[in-house]
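Worked example 3 (structure in, sequence out).
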């Protein structure tokens, strides 16, 4: 269950660009869980750069955010693909991957409390969690994860990174405030669109019949989401 909106649409292209890095990780037998943990550490580092720039009144710290965000997204893409190639894909990886992604969001968005205020930062964190909940809900009910945008995981990170660049260039925290409002508004729109898609999916006769019998509409293997194969199980 996915739409055309959002940076998730270019994930196959992005993963293909990481082929050499993936090959190196596989050769060195790096465990997927280590990659996931590294993504969390990188997100904490990005959050620290935001906080330090604000507390020390040194906006140049914020220029470290975009490369750290890019590294985080690369690691998020690599953990599942490395798991698949090394035969370490396990169902429990779904929980680890999900918790890791939520921790990354919280670290990055939560740190903006130091430059945009606690209330706005908390609102952005909460909105990001709502988006993720709608995606997981779709998977729990229909067997397919909704990863569509316009404000998915990668989109939220990109907006904050753009705010960091704008803040560094202007020497102002205002770009962070704008970025967080964009994240909140986009996240609420994304959650609403995902719920509408879920409602349409549940209205299909075959799905409704299975649910009425207390069964989940798990898709056939050929149409299982890439996210389920690469980024969830390990």
């Amino acid at each position: 269950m996915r739409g055309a909106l959002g940076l998730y649409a270019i994930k196959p292209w992005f993963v293909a660009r990481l082929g050499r890095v993936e090959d190196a990780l596989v050769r060195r037998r790096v465990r997927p869980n280590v990659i996931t943990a590294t993504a969390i550490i990188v997100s904490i580092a990005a959050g620290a750069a935001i906080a330090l720039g604000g507390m020390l009144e040194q906006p140049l710290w914020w220029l470290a955010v975009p490369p750290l965000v890019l590294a985080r997204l690369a690691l998020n893409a690599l953990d599942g693909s490395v798991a698949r190639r090394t035969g370490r894909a396990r169902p429990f990886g779904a929980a680890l991957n999900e918790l890791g992604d939520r921790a990354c969001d919280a670290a990055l968005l939560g740190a903006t409390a130091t430059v945009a205020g606690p209330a706005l930062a908390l609102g952005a964190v909460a909105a990001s969690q709502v988006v993720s909940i709608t995606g997981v809900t779709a998977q729990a009910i229909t067997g397919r994860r909704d990863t569509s945008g316009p404000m998915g995981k990668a989109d939220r990170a990109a907006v904050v990174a753009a705010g960091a660049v704008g803040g560094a260039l202007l020497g102002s925290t205002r770009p962070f405030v704008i970025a967080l409002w964009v994240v909140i508004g986009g996240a609420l729109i994304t959650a609403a669109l995902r719920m509408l898609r879920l409602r349409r999916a549940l209205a299909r006769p075959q799905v409704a019949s299975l649910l009425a019998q207390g069964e989940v509409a798990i898709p056939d293997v050929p149409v299982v989401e890439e996210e389920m194969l690469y980024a969830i199980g390990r």
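Notes: The CA atoms of residues 51 and 114 lie 6 Å apart. Residues 7-232 form a domain with the Four Helix Bundle (Hemerythrin (Met), subunit A) fold (CATH 1.20.120.1760).
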